[in-house]
Amino acid sequence: MGALYLDTTVMTATFLVLTLIVAKVTSRRAPVRAVIRDIQIINMDWIKHYYFVKYLYLNIEDPKELMSCKDEQIDGILWNTTIAGKTLKQPCPSYQKGVATRLCDEHGEWEPPNFINCTNEALMNASALLERIIENETQDQIQETVNNTLRLMKNLTSTTSRISAGDLSSSLSVLEKIVTVTNATGLAIEKEVFYAVIDNILSSDNSNSWTIVSKETEKYPTFLLKNMDRFSKITLQNDNITATKFNGSNFELVINQTKTDETGIRFPEEQLNNVSQNSEEIPTFLELPKQASNDIKAINFVAVLYKTMSDILGSDSNSKEKKGKHAKMSERRFFVNSPILSLTTQADLGVLDPPLNLMFGHTVKNKSTDMHAVCVSWDFNLKKWSQEGCTVNQTYRRRTVCQCNHLTNFAILMRPYTQVTEENPFLKTMSLVGVALSIAFTFLTSLVYVLTWRFVRSDKNVMMLNICGSLILSNAMFISLVEQTANEVKSISIS
């Protein structure tokens, strides 16, 4: 990058700019074709209908510094050569509507194409029709349109091994509309088809699309949990519910009625019957014991097991926590290491007594003693996992047993600890000895001043005694509190 300062008294501004763009800018060594990034007019006069530029400042970039991404064809789209740092827009593939984008990064390398705004034309039309019908038509027409839309979504999501990011985002929006209109009108939708769409969306093959959707929008995988939770509550509003069981590839669901004072709730029954310490696959299940203190006898419930949600969620959060006596910062990465269990009841059971028992089979086997299991539930208000009300009862390499005193969506978070280098004991001892010697000799200095005060009395020596007192006090605080840096308040006070 360079700059050129020209005296252009005899040239008009228009002629000068056109000339500089098509001409060669000559350096001391050889002519070089340059790219003008910025033109700044320093002084310009107007004479007889012409603008005359006296001084011109050009910001010129050396072409050797320019980088670009080369032509490349992916998913039927030709991505033409693009300057580094620019984003190229292209029409979506033929079977989708919208605009795809792709960034050429600062190093001249293509980023993966972004198809978040590319949606299947049939799905886009169905979504638009659903929007119009909801606003203007009768309940029967709305119900028919909703069920037709669900059947279309089932076909679209089942005929492809991987749902694109754009179709995934649109599907989530349509499902939210359906749940909202179901709640508002009480219409009866085809639940089996609704659950089949959810099952297809939850496939592990869609993990990359989920990552893109989560990054580009606010539709995280927990967005789906929220709408499933809403739909479960809508279903439970009907006193005469029909016992329903859905066993998909990616999630299981049971809708039923039980007597909490007699049998409690056990889900899934098949996994509960096959609990074995020596089995190859550790089951995941929940068990709500009899609630003797609850006045509610018969109760409707919806229990869900999300088998693949950990693959879709991936790393849940990053946080920095203090470790070690000197409060060194080390990153701890949390990730969901189990299927997710959900239990929703028609009536609020309050604080559960006895608590809900949950067993989680680990998705990734815990082979390290540094891995720490945490029992958590999803807080829809805080939009994050919370340990409140849940405790780890037992944890092993392949499974963890939790107890929780409330109902919602539950999972296991694993937290691998980053190894922190321990401080050298010799250096620590030397530091303490040095501070102790400093206190001792500072005290001796003060003592000498006090004993000889009548001979050395002066304002200068008064200041010296004050300094000695401050040093003794600060060093004494350091020695007494150096081991308590885990306490943030005390650490700040010492500082």
TrEMBL record:
Pfam short name (any one): HRM
Q: Where are the transmembrane segments?
A: 430-451, 463-482
Domain named GAIN-B: residues: 251-420
Q: Where in the cell is it found?
A: Membrane
Which SUPFAM superfamilies does this UniProt record tie to the protein? Hormone receptor domain (SSF111418)
Chief location category: membrane
What InterPro entries is this protein classified in?
A: Adhesion_GPCR (IPR051587), AGRL2-4_GAIN_subdom_A (IPR032471), GAIN_B (IPR057244), GAIN_dom_sf (IPR046338), GPCR_2_extracell_dom_sf (IPR036445), GPCR_2_extracellular_dom (IPR001879), GPCR_2_secretin-like (IPR000832), GPS (IPR000203)
Q: Topology versus the membrane, per the UniProt entry?
A: Multi-pass membrane protein
Q: Name one GO molecular function term.
A: G protein-coupled receptor activity
What keywords is this UniProt entry annotated with?
Disulfide bond, Glycoprotein, Membrane, Transmembrane, Transmembrane helix
Look up the record and give one Gene Ontology term from the biological process aspect. adenylate cyclase-activating G protein-coupled receptor signaling pathway
Q: Kindly list the GO CC terms recorded for this protein.
A: membrane
The chain positions of domain G-protein coupled receptors family 2 profile read: 69-122
Keyword Electron transport listed: no
Q: Which PANTHER family match?
A: IG-LIKE DOMAIN-CONTAINING PROTEIN (PTHR45813:SF8)
Q: Which family does it belong to?
A: Belongs to the G-protein coupled receptor 2 family. Adhesion G-protein coupled receptor (ADGR) subfamily.
The name on file for this protein is Uncharacterized protein
Protein source organism: Magallana gigas (Pacific oyster)
